[in-house]
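Database export, one record per block. Field names are fixed; values are copied verbatim from the stored entry.
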Amino acid sequence: MKPYLTHLRLPFQFLLSPIFLWGALLAGGTLNGQLLIAYAAFHLFLYAGGTALNSYYDRDEGPVGGLAHPPPPPPHLLAFSLGWQLIGFVLALAVNGWVAAIYFLMFWMSVAYSHPRIRLKGKPLGALVTIMLGQGILPFYAGWATARGSLGDGGAWWVMLAALSATFITGGMYPLTQIYQLDADAQRGDFTSARFLGVQNSFHLALGSIALGGAGAVYVAATKFSWGEAAGLALFLAAFLFAVAQWHKKFFTYTVMQNFKTVMRLYAGVTLPFLAWIFLRLALATIQ
């Protein structure tokens, strides 16, 4: 089972957690069984199974998001990935119909992203839109629907701002997770977002998009929580943008592996502090 589990890249899926939990927090969620089941459905099964599906088609030999040395895909990885995601769908059904519907939509987006007949990954705009929906807006509203039991009030302007803030940060990071593997993507024939933009524009998009999304997140934090927390978030995002800018300066002097390790550290750096704050807020809501 080890090769199959390795291709799930479970530690990397953990880094996608904040957006789902951000939606749950803003919907008034608490740390309860429903949230745990929904979280497992999306992050342990859907994202992980979708990653394994992508590995089956990509057959990466160099570093790829969350995996420095990917092993060859085992013979039944496709069936394993689909079965793994089916388990998650059963869990999503146990939460509520809205959560299951979002799961179902995200599953087919994952298939369209990887499957050779559609292969959105190889279409720059299609890939970017898929990632912004599948790792941004949709998981945010999955968290919201988990906490509320429906999408009720999800169309309020501040809720959409919160969803878009996370989405812009995710979209900004996406090309940066590809720019260290431009040669491998070219050999495979994938015209990825990073190949379309080039290194310089990938960094420019990342800095602008993260700054825009961060401003929205800071505003939501200030209006829904406290100005002190919003100020802390603003300082954190400013430090993160500085780190990305410093990497930009060194990118062409780094090896592929050095750039891979740098973007993985940055991904963890922007995720883990935000995740810790969300968990703290959810814990406080649970005990109140």
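Remark 1: The CA atoms of residues 168 and 213 lie 5 Å apart.
Remark 2: The mean pLDDT is 92.
End of record.
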